[in-house]
Specification:
binds flavin-adenine dinucleotide, Uridine Diphospho-n-acetylenolpyruvylglucosamine Reductase, domain 2, alpha+beta, Uridine Diphospho-n-acetylenolpyruvylglucosamine Reductase, domain 3, Vanillyl-alcohol Oxidase, Chain A, domain 3, 3 domains, 5-stranded antiparallel sheet
Length: 448
Amino acid sequence: MYSFEAFQELCNELTLCEDLDLITEPRELERFSKDFYDYSPILKDLLKDCSPELVVRPKSQEAIELVASACWKRDVPLTLRGSGTGNYGQCVPLRGGVLMLMGAMTKIKNFDPKTGVITVEPGCLLRDLQSYLAAYGRQLRLVPSTWRSASIGGFVAGGSGGIGSVRWGFLRDPGHLMGLEIITVEESPQRLRLDALEAEALNHAYGTNGIISTLSLSTAPTIPWEEVCIDCEDWEKAVALLHACAHAAIDLNLASLLEKNIVKHLPALSRLSCNKHRLLFLVAPDGITTIQRLADSMGGEFHCLGLEREQSRTAFRELTWNHTTLHMRAVNSQWTYLQMLLPQPEFVFMDTIKQRWGEDLLWHLEVVRQQGAQRLAALPLVKWNNEDRLYELIAHCKDLGAVLFNPHVITVEDGGLGLVDVNQVEAKKNYDPNGLLNPGKLKGWLDV
Ligand SMILES: Cc1cc2nc3c(=O)[nH]c(=O)nc-3n(C[C@H](O)[C@H](O)[C@H](O)COP(=O)(O)OP(=O)(O)OC[C@H]3O[C@@H](n4cnc5c(N)ncnc54)[C@H](O)[C@@H]3O)c2cc1C
């Protein structure tokens, strides 16, 4: 633990840097000590007293290096923050120290029209990146439902997938992240260029094993997505229809299914309200009639809402993924959630869970590509009761074959498959040898 004098010394050194804002106002420290971890009552309790002692906002690579070196010299923890929209307290400093805001590092450094690869600084908002790419007829392959406020660095270091996962799988699949530039945390920080293979260890590592200063990502040709929804009386039929549409020879960017007790609480889709289960699609224009035909043949009520209005609060991309949870919590903050990959046959699994847990669990499904195969992921809404009951539900889902990604834990590994990734730990040894970056979040490092 660093001393008061050491911390004062660090502040004095950093004050001299013109490219660095220093923030010490208690209300600001409080603001930057939170992300959206309050979706989990467990994390809300666990993280409530965590706070940085100093917040800094660098405006150049040199300023980042200065911060890294100053922290290294005094053994002060350093945690990075993009836009702070993460859900597991990913950017909440567990051991105080310095919190570094990456939001001023927003340069788009290169776009290669031949490959579509974009190279950008980490603080750039996904929204701004999308606008930039649109001029070249390209779009990001994957965005979270928080795409209007989240940063690209935060998405790669903390996110996993979202809108686009039905076509493109998840961020950690090879082919999305094409390379990184990073800054190490040492007395004399180095700037290193990592190729796609080397970069894998920093993808979804919560900023525990290197400061990402530039990212290169692949993109996709723009498709003018149309919003289409289908309402279904019967849940089993709705699941079958979701499968049928996802298996059809059409381009989809989103395929979600919400139980009717969720649908009625979402911000009303203009012109449409219903008391049925609802399937939501973003589909290429040439796929609309196919979805309509499948809906007609299976007794679903088809609606085409036209071209996606990306910026609207009721755009499908802001009613799905974890935005469904956000809207439900706005109605009743007792709702929390889980994340899982469903075992097959999915309907049987969901029915068994529903029989035991009743209306304490509402199904929300997303079609995803998981290791090349189409699967159903779920982000069910769960009525909070207490920790024991939540873990009873998790155990029940696991016993029946679901793969859980627990959103009520703070480490990289516990929120994933529970396994230590030796490459992530190795990268930490190389790029953060004193273990100062976001301490407490990489279990493999704690166990060394
Ligand atoms: C309503 C809601 C909906 C969401 N939907 C989705 C979704 O669809 N898909 C999804 O994947 N996530 C989703 N999320 C989680 C989150 O919004 C995304 O992962 C988002 O991309 C995080 O970006 P951020 O800029 O806010 O990152 P932050 O929350 O600021 O940071 C995330 C992690 O990245 C690290 N980090 C930030 N910058 C750097 C850097 N330069 N170098 C190294 N590490 C860094 C931080 O330390 C932290 O560990 C959702 C969250 C909410 C609240």
